[in-house]
Fold each of these.
Amino acid sequence: MMTEKQTILLQASGPDGGAEAIARAGEILRQGGTVAIPTETVYGLAADAANAEAVAAIFEAKGRPADNPLIVHIAHEEQLEQVISRRPRGLEILTRRFWPGPLTIICPKADRIPLVTSGGLDTVAVRMPSHPVARAIIEASVPLAAPSANRSGYPSPTTARHCVDDLWGRVDAIVDGGRCTVGVESTVISLCGEVPVLLRPGAVTLEQLREALGRVELGKGVLERLEEGSKVLSPGLKYKHYAPSADVELVRGDSAAYTAYVRDRAAKETGLWAMCFTEDQERLGEEIPRLCYGGMEDYAAQTEALFDDLRRLDALGARRVLVHAPQPTGMGLAVYNRLIRSAGFHITDV
Ligand code: TXA
Ligand code: MG
């Protein structure tokens, strides 16, 4: 059991534009504390990336396996030099196009980043967030190691409330910067091999990366379950993830087939919920309880609603959830990738 911390909640808004909250968060981080901070993707649980003890406290607060490496967040290009040992091919192109923003790039690690931050690897994940509060907190402190600010295995937090639910008493502070606009974690690409590899899809899409770099491979584990014991490029991919307590099943098919399947199941089971698209609403009828997570092709709406809806299903008492799967293209690939994990790879074609 970890000793209970006196967590403080800091408001990054108000008449001073959040200046006091930012200064206080920066001070806690410089002193080796842990602070949940807003970013444009999801909330991150931050600590000084170069301070092994501070980083160890992140793993403890989250209950995160020690071999799952963290992303180091920077606010400007000069900090990149402190974090990586060499600039791999393609780095310049990606940073110029996509930073600041929801793209994490795996590079060779600099010695001053301890192995606890990189999960024992000689590579390091780096991202320059675009969220003004995240950037201001990094400016007020140091490069920050920050995984998503949820308890390990749970859906990532997209509001300060989610962080409070998961981490109150386990971290030094939580900064409330409102709702995250992107809603899913950053795209992760590795530039450490022969060919760039997409390890985690996000708001920067595979299509955009291919346009920028030419050849980009899709990492094993993005669309499928990784084989037990297979060599894992991104250790985070092997763990159960994004899972509410309710039993999630991902259903692939058009609106008519999906809604017919849900209605059939609902006639036979209790505690069944639908997580559907706007286009499914009418066909579902009135009786079946549901959360609608956006239009079928409105991936931006889907990513924004996704994790909040997965968390809400528990509060609503859902026992089983039939989720209508998006097309795995563009930003839909990110939504699909998170959903197959929250479903524990329980996928039904209808
Ligand atoms: O949007 C985001 O990326 C958020 C915000 C807070 O920035 N952070 C986030 O961190 O999602 P986390 O720890 O939940 O996910 C990091 C992912 C994991 O799948 C991890 O295995 C992978 O990045 N990763 C980190 N360092 C790596 C490395 N050196 N090599 C391969 N994969 C790495
Ligand atoms: Mg995470």
Amino acid sequence: MSDLHLKPIQPVDGAYNLPNYKAVYQEFSWNDVEKEFSWHQTGKVNMAYECIDRHVAEGYGDKIALHYVNGDEEQVFTFKDIQEKTDHLAAVLKKYGVKKGDIVFIFLPKGPECYLAMIAAIKLGAVAGPLFEAFMEEAVKDRIMDCEGRFLISDSELVKRVPRHELPSLETVFITEGPDKCRENEISLIKALEEVEPEKNSIEWLELDDRLNIHYTSGSTGKPKGIVHAHRAMIHQYQTGKWVLDIKEDDVYWCTAHPGWVTGTVYGIFAPWLNRATIVVNGGRFNADSWYSTIEKTGVTVWYSAPTAFRMLKAEGNEALEKYNLSSLRHILSVGEPLNPEVIVWGIETLGKRIHDTWWMTETGAQLIVNLPSEAIKPGSMGRPIPGIEVAVLDDNGIPLPNGQIGHLGIKASWPAIMREVWKNEEKYQSYFINGWYISGDLAVLDEDGYVFFQGRSDDMINSSGERIGPFEVESKLIEHEAVAEAGVIGKPDPVRGEIVKAFIVLKKGYTPSADLLENIRMFVKQKLAAHSAPREIEVLDELPKTKISGKILRRELKARETVKVEAR
Ligand code: PRX
């Protein structure tokens, strides 16, 4: 390994969209960005219009908007195609009662239908609620139930994980396939599209603060919370697409995340389409050959992924890499978990490119701390705040600490993409703020140049492969298993996934630990909740460490045991 990771890595010369960070930081105002949107003149607001219809109106209808690849299958859609298909789909949704403000859950695999459904729902002023394709019954139920979702767009496979009998609010379920694939009370979209005339200009004009989408996200306590964003977020999402993704007219852009995660929506759909980029959608699961071949086949120039994916590619070695021509790549970015210096070195040595870390959260709605292509990267740092954003490291009372000290990463409120609300939970929303600062829950250190270094979480939230997992949710599921009396769940450090979910359990009387039993418990969580939430390790203890007074499980103590084990190796 070279010593690259010890010193800043300088940018290569290029015509970047933000060439002079420091100067722009001094004078930038979010108001300047508003001029870029058609609503600045017309007063008519809708994210879907700015992403699609506007480009058609401005003469870019024939430009490729979406290139879908799944193994040997490929489909290509122009902006005009997307406009027509989403207008048509919107007409169907409208006929079945979808209107402004309704939540439309979208539970589909990563494929064109998912993207079309998102845009169609937003055209009608509905609130798009994308669900991750790996969610199982309980995870789906919790989310739809929490906000009493009335509409769902799914397919005949995933809909089997939607327990309709337990979801009285769910009135209408659309299936993307033909009537032969639909069960009772399900509407075939193929049939409905034949029956309903396409409607031009299906767009409902809105206010900037009207609701746009809802993403459920985990914390360290309670069930996942519904984080709602407003159309106003487009100001921030557009600008970071320009500055941070550095999108230009000829770019082919690939974000590897499913829209069920905030990255897959914000940087998989909105930011690139607001910047009129061609997006690539890769169906199927992670696999080095399929990923490299997608880059080669579609000519990806800008690639946004996550540390676990890069680490998995690194672990595959150069054999897979050497089979493909990846010379189209010009800009690579990462998000979701700490990006190890080793991975940055791997990127330089094998892909010949720097990997640019970015930091943000579901709640923040867009990137806040980033490494720009025009600036030096300090390996191990998440970068610096974008213009328009002020960050600080704060003590427990919300007072800024000097550089070099570890504390709570805070962001001066507010900015255009910040969450509009936590669904029906004002108390939770308010709990994020202190002294005018948004408190992220992350711990960080600032250096003298303003670079931010991630130091971990201040709570028990688990980050496995960039996916946010609440220990409470997993613990609740574990104790539903007939053999489990108590459970404590933590994130255990892992070289590939950052952290893995590890469960400590106490068995009920009459049960003895065995490999079969533990596997059965693991599968129980996997089948009910989601594969990524299922503990990769389960350890049986006689008792769990608890606080003396309230008897709460001390996850911190469980975590300390694991960290000590790793360090001792
Ligand atoms: O702990 C931070 C981590 O992911 C959390 C946010 O997770 P989520 O809402 O799912 O959003 C992920 C993608 C926007 C943060 O509180 N995180 C995110 N980016 C980074 C990170 N940790 C370290 N480095 C990052 N670049």
Amino acid sequence: MSKKVTKIGVLTSGGDSPGMNAAIRAVVRTGLYYGLDVFGIVRGYNGMIEDDIFQMNSRSVANIIQRGGTILKTARSKDFFDHEGRKRAFANLEKRGINGLVVIGGNGSFTGALILSNEFGIPCIGIPGTIDKDLYGTDFTIGFDTAVNTAVQAIDKIRDTADAHDRLFIVEVMGRDAGYIALHSGIATGAENILIPEVHTSIEELIGSLSEKEKRKKLVNLVVVAEGHSSGGANEIAKYVKQHLPNLDTRVTILGHIQRGGSPSCLDRLIASRMGYYAVESLIEGRHNVMVGVMNSSMLYTPLEIAIREKQRISEDWMKMVKILAS
Ligand code: F6P
């Protein structure tokens, strides 16, 4: 029988994503509602190791639901990879009596949580917070909706100028290992080609497709590529296109970190609030080392080791649709 959770810590870790503040707010207020002491851990696992931990109250999370970034700050901690680092981190939790942890982040953050839990027995709940939407066990990750809408707004603007000059734009969006931002924003802006890490498309195939459209006199003006695509990204593709299709007037735009900032969308605030609330309820009910997700509108709890190991698959139907709609 696991010990009753009375004091919880909350942290954000890895790349920030819009809506993390809404999740922190939900964790803090739900914890207080159930009579728990709630502690904020600053800069993710770094703050845990360096003892940058403070007690939070309801006012600590006032006026943050609409703000991007994370009031707890975030980091990718190297020291937490070492057992010594984790030992120091756990000692800082233990001395405050913190006996439950909510980790808001992505794959790497959950891996850290699971190792800490296995070594020291502290129960951890993961909340999926990443713009990449690459976690198994949830239809949504906090920040994806805002990020993809930022990308769509930017690409729409690029299309205006592309159309005015009859130019080809290669637009690079974020996603080191995952192509969801590219796929969704590319479909929503009517991109002629979408290149993502999960689906092998060689640069020669891209050239073939662009030149075939050029021959048909189809106005080709938009390729969306995820930064992690095997081509090496927008600049590499543009070099190749300029060599092989010199008649196309080609330009590159890399959207970059603009996709990580900004006020979260309604959807991101909503899922962050729900996930934060259910994360605390899960700890209280003794559901440990799971990630809270939303699938088909219902809450789903996926063991952290499965959320870390498994990949979300991109349906072949989507890729077929992309080809048909761009023809
Ligand atoms: O994981 C989110 C993400 O924005 C990725 O899409 C991107 O590859 C990476 O973080 C960038 O990380 P950093 O801000 O550390 O350069």
